Amino acid sequence: MSLEVNGKQYEVDEEGYLANLNDWDTDVANKMAEIDGAPLEENHWEVINFLREYYEEYQIAPAVRVLTKQIGKKLGKDKGNSKYLYELFPYGPAKQACKYAGLPKPTGCV
Amino acid sequence: MNMLHTINKSPFENSTMSSCIAMCSQDSSILFIEDGVISVMKSTKFSELIENALKEFKMYVLKPDLEARGLSLNNVIEGVEIVGYDEFVDLTTEHKTVQSWL
Amino acid sequence: MSEDGVVKKFMYVNRKSPYGTIYALESLEVVLITAAFDQDVSLTFTDDGVYQLMKGQQTEGIGMKNFSSTYSALGDYEINKIFIDKESLEERGLSLSDLQELVWEDEDEDYAEKSSINLVSRAELSEIMNNQDVVLSF
User: Fold this and answer.
1) The domain C9-137 belongs to what CATH superfamily?
2) Is A109 among the catalytic positions?
3) Residues of chain C contacting residue B41, judged by C-beta atoms under 8 Å apart
4) What is the mean pLDDT of the segment spanning C38-53?
5) Among B75, C36, C42, C53, which one is most buried in terms of CB atoms within 10 A?
């Protein structure tokens, strides 16, 4: 399967996750969100950028629980809770945000 | 040249390394790869065995496997030659036969 | 697992060098997955398992994913009981300074960083293992 962004083809799996981490750029993320019908805003980007940094450091996408806790520590308690994160990413914060961030599905994602 | 033996198991895991050294004929060489690279590190309980065997056999160790495991090249027992994939290929062609110990 | 409110003591025993076999990576993945179940989890590194925590792993040459940095995330998963077998280090000419430092943040103390690593003898390990409800060996 593939995703077309700016005339270029990107390989994705059957759930829409990018096959190659290095293919990612902001246009790819915006395109994925556009297809899902909810364009990315600044609040989304905070989480997406956090996930990319976390992956860069630890080589994993964090579980939802870890994501929630770490977002709370970094961006404040008003953002570090499931309600806020599920409003931003209704398909599941780790699952959906990881897809936009070009990361594999989180380990332990159920 | 006679035989090239390759060892890919840690000496702590099973007796492959000791058996190989016991059965090696004089003009053979031993190449340590994968977890086998642990065999040629200094100050382990197997270091002395390797140091003694070096008097009889040529020994080589694969550099990428050392690096992957965070094993310092400076801690490889002196006399064991550190090689890359190219030399690995050369070694297999230079020797009459290859025995890959499993 | 914890639906009835019972928290069990789980210990994962890591005994293999990384990369040569799949055990080290499999164990790490299972640990991260089961961390979601709110159990009392501890990790032991013994025998060749101590090599899993070596500093400075560089896997470009063997074309495999370097998962050594993932151990640093264990603290985020509230896994902060890491036991290292002292005799296994000694047999290999290694010391704690050859291994990564693993820490966790104590939320109750303003996220103070604390070490997760406990250097223990085999006698102590035997005792700790005896007190587990579930021991999984990799």
Assistant:
1) DsrEFH-like (3.40.1260.10)
2) yes
3) 92-93
4) 96
5) C53
